Amino acid sequence: MVLRSISLVKFKGVILQKPMAKAVVVGDSVSFFCHGVGQPKPNVFWERNGKRLSRQDFDQTYYLEERDGMSVLEVGKVQERRDEGTFSCTVENDLGYSEAATTLTVYRRNERPEDFPTITKHPVVTAAARGDRIRLHCTSSDPTATVTWYKDRFPLKLTQRAKVTMKDGASELRILKARESDYGKYHCSMENQSGIVYSKRAMLYIRRAVRKV
Question: Does 2 fall in a domain?
């Protein structure tokens, strides 16, 4: 029997999903996403207006998490002077790097566009048993807004079990045959040409089904 070593093809850090431009109201939060790959596995760095964000920034103002190559940068309680401008992500390993930049526009609350979306109904804390059908709801003031659902800060992957509907600004996230892996914190965003707004976050608890004796 001959054993052959398998070597992975090495390549520099590459961005598969670039962060997108966002517009929010001062005091709200906003999230940017950057998906990178490379071999060896690259690191992801974020900059604000040309300055790399430091550990101190993440402790006080920003939240950073990475999962399966997807990096999320969350800005909490956006401030006009501090946060408006350019955000960029860099995906880098020993062989090289790729970078992508985008912009954040911050409106004062009394100066936001008339059609800026608001959320009129937020998802609520829900408890369900394994195997149950789950429904979470989120409603926008703009019936044409685009909805995105998130689980534990990352965009929710839609499957045959997890589906989203949207009609006249009202969105429903439907999860069939609940599993323990569905446990987590859910929220939605509503976005149109004027900006984006995020709902409150709601926990989904999954309990074991009670067997009937």
Answer: no
* Domain-located, residue 160: yes
Residue 77 sits in the same domain as residue 137: no
Comparing CA positions, the residue from 174, 127, 173 lying closest to residue 148 is 173
Q: Which residue range(s) make up the domain with 185?
A: 119-207
Per residue in 68-92, pLDDT tens? 999 999 999 999 999 999 999 999 9
Reading the block at residue 15, the tokens are 């961005």
pLDDT in tens, 6-27: 458 999 999 999 999 999 999 9
Q: Would you say residue 39 lies in a domain?
A: yes
Joined together, the tokens standing for residue 208 give 């074991």
Adjacency order of strands within the sheet including 162-167 = 119-121, 134-140, 170-175, 162-167
Q: What are phi and psi for residue 122, nearest 5 degrees?
A: -105, 155
What is the H or E stretch that residue 133 is in? none
Q: What is residue 65's three-state secondary structure?
A: strand
Task: Return the H-helix or E-strand segment holding 103.
Answer: strand 96-107
Examine residue 100 and state whether it is found in any structural domain, yes or no.
Answer: yes
